[in-house]
Amino acid sequence: MYDIEARHVIEALRSGISSRAVGQYFSEARPKIMKEISTRLDLVCEQGKSSGMVISGKYGEGKTHLLNTVFNIAHSNHMVVSYLSLSKETPMDKLYLVYQKLIQNTCLPKRQQPGFMFELEKLSAGSPVANEMLLYAAKQLETDKLYYLFRSYLNTEDADEKFLLQADLEGDFIANAPLKKIYRRIFNEPVKYNKNFTKTKNCGDYISFMSHLFTQLGYHGWVILVDETELMGRLSKKARLNAYRNMADFLLPDRCPEMTFSIFALSASYAEDVIEGKHEYENLEEVYPESQEPAKTVLDLLAKAPQLLPLTKEEMNEALYKIQDFHGKAYNWNPQLSAASLLGATQSGGYLLRTKIRSAIEFLDQLYQYGRAGSTAINELGEETLTEDVPQIEDF
Question: Which has the closest alpha carbon to 145: 125, 175, 116, 166?
Fold first, then answer.
């Protein structure tokens, strides 16, 4: 009987699409950067110190896999995790669109599917958490819109109003006029903003509000994972610079929301193709001659981001042994190959980690189906025989 979870892992590796399951079982590689990330997570959980970092790597070298590994580690630390990829629909220069995608892709610990609004639905007006959130919204944010909105949410009994207010908290922002109308109906008093809210300027209030909410609900922090960061390079000049300024609110400790840790995964070519190729430092001086921070600091972080190096031979062997084990469980057989034969099978897969893994799985597939792959064979006792020539996939 084959193992369903092992089959899922093998098929995910075969497709080249990283998954949380793969991240859970293949987490030992690149110990140096993982140690730094674990230290950052501990600082959030134990001392409440927020921070962020940028990692870079070539296509197919494991950036997404690393993010999925962090996803699992964060959940094991009882932290909330949000995972999103930048895209044309989610550009970093428009924080209100990023917030909407963040909320749609937020997972609570021990839950595989996104969603946390049920936690809000449990709150009642007058409860300690509700009172704390109202005080925070009234005193600690740039605008006080969320005070009026959250107080209305806690006290309305109208299902349509509840739905509208919850949609706003999820990033589908309602206009000021209907919010004022709802608040007046419930409390018979007018809304008096200390400052008018606009989603293009004040969306950071919502991110700060949610980070405080997660803390009050008893979670040990909020981890934000952003993939495909290099797509910022396709934005216009001014939009890119605005994107860097927005990134500062996730990366720089003095600007981060409370108890958060963010990672941005970036293509290794971004520094050459965009920062140097499009003269970003000169653009910054031109567009913001008097105030280049915090965008300049973010540019420095992007340019000097630690790069994921190819796995060492020992790390590759360890990963291949795990792949062999999962393949055996997935198809109910016992390969028992040597490290040399399985490592040799990856040589035809080019230099990318993703294609090397695919080659190893194809090698195992052929041994399982035909008992032979290249010059390697499994004899009747299930033992391996191997000639001195390293098997190559293109020879199959």
Answer: 175
